[in-house]
Amino acid sequence: MKVCKFEKIKDEDEMKQVINCIQKEHPYVAVVPILAQLQEWLQAISISWFHEEDEVSHTTVNAIEAYCCTLANHLITDSHLNQEIKNRILECIKKIHILVEDKADLLIDKMIKAEIYGLSSDLFTYCLRQQGLRAQTLDTGKLIQINLERKPDIPYIQESIQQYIDENRNVDIFIAPLSICRNVYGEIDFMSEQRNDYYATVLATLFKADEILLSTPINHIYANRNCLREQHSLTYIEAEQLINSGVHLLYADCITLAARSNIVIRLTDTHDLSTERLYISSHDTGNSVKAILSQDSATFVRFTSLNVLPGYLFMGKILEVINKYQINVISMASSNVSISMMLTASRDTLRIIQRELHKYAEMVMDENMSVIHIIGSLHWERTQVESHIMDTIKDIPVSLISYGGSDHCFTLSVHTTDKNRLISSLSRQFFERQCAA
Fold first, then answer.
1. Are 377 and 287 in contact (CB under 8 A)?
2. How far is CA 368 from the centre of its chain?
3. What are the start and end residues of each CATH 3.40.1160.10 domain in the chain?
4. DSSP letter string over 125-159?
5. Which residues form a coiled coil (predicted)?
6. What was the pLDDT predicted at 225?
7. Which class for 184: exposed (0-12), middle (13-18), buried (19 or more C-beta within 10 A)?
8. Torsions phi, psi of 275, nearest 5?
């Protein structure tokens, strides 16, 4: 069984692309976001409503009605289904008009938001019904409950989900609105948008899926997309180590939850739903290089000892200050007199660190740096891989190399101006040659 999650659907054309992908993938649950235009109008309603500009709010609600009816006319040509969805639109719009009349309140604002999220999902449901599928919108506002830590209470809701599935065995596909849930007080609520992938992974766990397709912005990932899946397949451990090192891939708990339930994760880009970019599972294909990930907006920092502290205390002092300000260290190298790091931190934070350490170290910074992570089975005994990497980068200035801390990652730090040249060289070395072979 499969779950698919889509993100950032801007217009009617992208809506059609998602529908085509759903028909191709045949998921049991499709998790869809609110359409971008509806999201903009939702924000406008909240602003005008809290400023007590009721007339402006009602005008925006009418614009939502007209927009949804236009989409229905374009996408749902069956007269019976067209009339049904228009009745649903009218019902939703009436509720929102009534809610807007109430005094501004955060709970009512969430209720308005939930109505429009549900309406956006209903449009997909009726589009799929027109394609002959028995589709139904999943009422996640009643089924998904979060605990005091604002995480889904999986054991608590597992039973209700199973009962819901048993009552709807004739349904081919459920359409779930993204992020809607219910809090511990029984009120309608939403999970953070930063956890969209996690929300979908929770649904995959609850529905006991064996595979989840996540559409997410991943234009910083480079993999061998023209050959066998094994050549862009990561293990849960490799993916988890990447995330823990600060690389934006998925919300960290996605990997933990998927690994616990043995759910395969497939990643596609939001702009190319048909091409699988990464495949994450428990199986290690053993390929030497599986993917290359880039990370921008990093800073190279070298701390050179002023010989005030002995080496072991100098190292401890540096790490103490880094920990104090919760700085993300991407990679690090050290000698008996200096420590070099690739960091992600604001200029203000770096200035504070410099002030705190000025008695102990000279601090040199280089901004506008990029970090390239080469991912795969890279154990130190595989000298051929190491030599190929070093041969590839011989003509490119490299500020820092981190190798040996993990059997799955070889990290290079370069100026951002050299990033594309380095990625192109690595791609030719490890991906194009694999295809040729």
1. yes
2. 24
3. 2-215
4. HHHHHHTT--EEE--HHHH-BB-TTSSB-HHHHHH
5. none
6. 59
7. middle
8. -110, 120
